[in-house]
Structure formats: C-alpha cells, structure tokens
C-alpha cells in the first residue's frame, strides 16, 4: 500500500482529526485508490501517530462512505461510482445555495475581495488547462462562501457531501468548464448587491449543471 513519505503534519489538531483529514484527502485525490486495502499500521507510520487514532479515523470514514470495513477481514477504499453524481449533487446544491443566501446577508468587503481574487485565479487555471489547481481553487471559492455563512450546522452537512463530489472531480467524472467562471462572477455580483434570492439560485445552478453535463457526456 503506497503512501506518501514526505507528509508533514499540521499543528494544533488531535491525532484522530489529523488522521481523518489526511486519509480523506488521500482518498479524494486518488493517492489511496478505489478498492485499495488499507493497513492501519502502515498508515500510522506514514502519519506519525499511533494505530488507535488511525482506526478511529477509518471508522468515521466508513460512516461517511469513503472506506468499507469488513470485520475480521480488513478495510478497503470504496469504489468510485460515476452515477452517484445524480444522488450527491441535488442535496449539495441546495445546501450550497443556502450558504450563498446567508453569505449575501453578511459577507464582509474584505472577504468579497478575496472571493473575486479566487475567481480570477480559477479563470486563469481553467484557461491554462490546469485541472488540479482549478479544482483546488474552486474548492477554496466555495469554502469561503460557506465560512461566511457562519452556520456550523450547515458547514458540517456540506462537508461530507462535498468530499464525495471532489472525489468525483479527481476521478474526472466531473469536468471543470469556463462556464463556472461566469457563474462564480454572477454569485459574487449577487452577494455584493445583497440579492439573497439570486445568490442562492445561481449557487444551486452552479452545482446542478454538472448533472446535465454528465448526462450529455454519457449519452443518458
């Protein structure tokens, strides 16, 4: 089971949370491949923690659907099902739209400026065909909106679903397009003008559009 050897651990975080976040990231970006069998001792060594927090992290990842635990047998990364996009995106789009509505009511000018800068970076990466950085910048863009909503219950609900969506992105079940740049700009304009209804609508459409593109790509 290949795992990175140059992993640097973040500070001020419990071993369990650190293990969970890093393992989730490795599953999402494909470092740990679908159906790959996981060895908790090897993971613990790679992460620089004991086996207990790794096991606890794997249990949480099992609940969230990133790994499958087989008692007495072992643990493996779950498969990527492209068709799951039609199950994941509708509820996520609704939650993202709600986050945008909250953000439109209270986002600061500084945060709005940061949002504009992120979309400029996103646009540049799209034009350059830089898949990885466009994905990470898109993630930062939406995370900033979610953070501005200042609703921890909403944040927690979005987090798990978004992890599965970004996994689909990394496995190229969803492709970033230039249309997202314009949608981001429209979201920014709506938030800046405090148009709550428009901000929520465009944010929802930004996520739901991927379903139509999926159907077009696969001839469904």
TrEMBL record:
PROSITE patterns: HTH_GNTR. The keyword Hydrolase does not apply. InterPro entries: GntR_C (IPR011711), TF_FadR/GntR_C (IPR008920), Tscrpt_reg_HTH_GntR (IPR000524), WH-like_DNA-bd_sf (IPR036388), WH_DNA-bd_sf (IPR036390). It holds the Pfam family GntR. Residues 13-80 form the HTH gntR-type domain. Keywords: DNA-binding, Transcription, Transcription regulation. PANTHER family: GLUCONATE OPERON TRANSCRIPTIONAL REPRESSOR, TRANSCRIPTIONAL REGULATOR, GNTR FAMILY. This is GntR family transcriptional regulator. It comes from Cytobacillus gottheilii. The lineage of its organism: Bacteria, Bacillati, Bacillota, Bacilli, Bacillales.
């Amino acid at each position: 089971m290949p795992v990175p050897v140059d992993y640097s651990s973040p500070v001020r975080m419990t071993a369990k949370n650190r293990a969970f976040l890093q393992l989730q990231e490795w599953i999402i970006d494909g470092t740990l491949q679908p159906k790959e069998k996981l060895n908790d001792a090897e993971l613990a060594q790679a992460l620089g923690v004991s086996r207990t927090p790794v096991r606890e992290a794997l249990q949480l990842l099992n609940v969230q659907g990133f790994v499958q635990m087989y008692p007495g047998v072992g643990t493996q990364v779950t498969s990527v099902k492209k068709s799951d996009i039609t199950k994941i995106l509708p509820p996520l789009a609704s939650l993202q739209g709600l986050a945008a509505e909250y953000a439109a009511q209270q986002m600061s000018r500084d945060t709005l400026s940061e949002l504009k800068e992120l979309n400029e970076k996103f646009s540049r990466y799209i034009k350059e065909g830089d898949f990885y950085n466009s994905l990470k910048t898109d993630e930062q863009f939406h995370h900033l909106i979610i953070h501005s909503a200042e609703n921890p219950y909403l944040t927690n609900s979005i987090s798990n679903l978004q992890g599965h969506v970004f996994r689909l992105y990394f496995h190229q079940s969803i492709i970033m397009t230039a249309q997202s740049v314009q949608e981001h700009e429209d979201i920014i304009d709506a938030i800046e003008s405090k148009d709550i209804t428009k901000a929520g609508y465009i944010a929802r459409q930004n996520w739901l559009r991927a379903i139509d593109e999926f159907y077009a790509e696969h001839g469904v």
